[in-house]
Amino acid sequence: MLADVVRAWAEGGRRAVDATVGGGGHAGVFRELGADVLATDRDPEAVAAARARLGEDGVHYAIGPFGSAEILAMVRAFRPDRILLDLGVSSHQLDDPVRGFTFRPGAALDMRMTPQQGVTAADVLNTWTVERLAGAFTELADEPWGKKLARVIVKRRARTPFATSDDLVGAIRETLGPRSGPPEFARLFQALRIAVNEEREQLELALPALRAALRPGGRIAVITYHSGEDRIVKNALREWAKSCVCPPKQPVCTCRGRALGRVLTKKPVRPAEPEILANPRARSARLRAFEVTL
Q1: What DSSP string describes 68-115?
Q2: How far is Cα 287 from Cα 219, in angstroms, rounded to an integer?
Q3: 103 with 189: CB under 8 angstroms?
Q4: Which parts of the chain register pLDDT below 70?
Q5: Would you tell me which CATH number, out of the four given (3.40.50.12370, 1.20.1250.20, 1.10.150.170, 3.40.50.720), belongs to the domain 99-197?
Q6: Which bin fits 90, alpha (ψ -120 to 50), beta or left (φ > 0)?
Q7: pTM for the whole thing?
Q8: Crossing angle between the packed helical segments 199-213 and 182-197, to the nearest 10 degrees
Q9: Which of 45, 52, 222, 268 is most solvent-facing, going by the fewest CB within 10 Å?
Q10: Three-state secondary structure call for residue 2
């Protein structure tokens, strides 16, 4: 969604944060527009790819989750007027079977965005309780059979621990039936990935801090690929645009008393049909943007 990001960018941006730099596509456009860029990502391989593509001129690099104290401190010190979050998983991560994000046969159940750090997808499947697994599948995948799937996983892991994508695919097919296929696999594998990397928690933590780091007139844009994440972004932007956030029946306003800025996207911007045809993975993308006045 390069063209849509550029439209949300507008003129005047001189210090940009690409907090999910991936391979550096968006950051490269920011450089072409004349901005200095702080490029961050929790995946060291992504930062290395961006560095190889963009070089060192006008680009500063950092490795870490955008919701971490270290990265947020760097963003504040950078004093940006533009911030972009492009959430989800990159094509490079999906296409590398070693990283374990895919449901292709034989892939390891890893899914960590920072390799070698934290729990893996296999750890989650092999140790979480039925209730916790059911909550992840129900809340993050809107799966009505989430609790049944969780029970099937616990039953199966008692015989053989989960290790590869085939193990989870087998549990899904036992739960949803043998005719279940890629749409169901994609939805449930995505939910597991979000749980492994605590992606919703990172987003909820980072959004207010990133907005507060922007200079007056600065803009933040967020691209989401999951309905739950889009809901978090939508609600945050709406709250920031309100002049009063006190409880409805409170007689006297005791909150900030004015809006923090304005929502630039009344509805989420979606990829154009040519982009979806060229890159089907873009079909679920949603872009929302906000301009800070305080």
Answers
A1: SHHHHHHHHHH--SEEEEE-S--HHHHH-GGG----STT-BS---SST
A2: 13
A3: yes
A4: 1-2, 10-11, 91, 95, 294
A5: 1.10.150.170
A6: beta
A7: 0.88
A8: 60
A9: 52
A10: helix
Dihedral sign of CA atoms 47, 51, 54, 57 in order: positive
The answer to whether 139 touches 131, Cβ cutoff 8 Å, is no
**DSSP for 105-122, written as a single string:** TT-BS---SSTTSS--HH
- pLDDT tens digits along 242-260: 988 788 778 788 777 789 9
* Residue 89 near residue 101, CB atoms below 8 Å: yes
What's 185's DSSP letter?
A: H
Residue 20: burial class (beta carbons within 10 Å; 0-12, 13-18, 19+) = buried
Q: Of how many residues is the chain composed?
A: 294
Domain boundaries, the chain: 2-86+199-292, 99-197
Task: For strands 261-263 and 219-224, give the pairing.
Answer: unpaired
| pLDDT tens sequence across 31-90 | 988 999 999 999 998 999 999 999 999 999 999 999 999 999 999 999 999 999 999 877
The tokens describing 222, both together, are: 């967020």
- For the domain 2-86+199-292, what is the CATH code? 3.40.50.150
Pairing of strands 59-63, 261-263: unpaired
User: CB within 8 A of 27, min separation 6: which ones?
Assistant: 16, 18, 21, 37, 39, 50, 54, 59
**Would you state the structure tokens that stand for residue 207, as one six-digit string?**
């959004």
Both tokens of 230, joined, read: 């889009």
Q: State the Cα torsion 10-14-18-22 to the nearest 10°.
A: 90
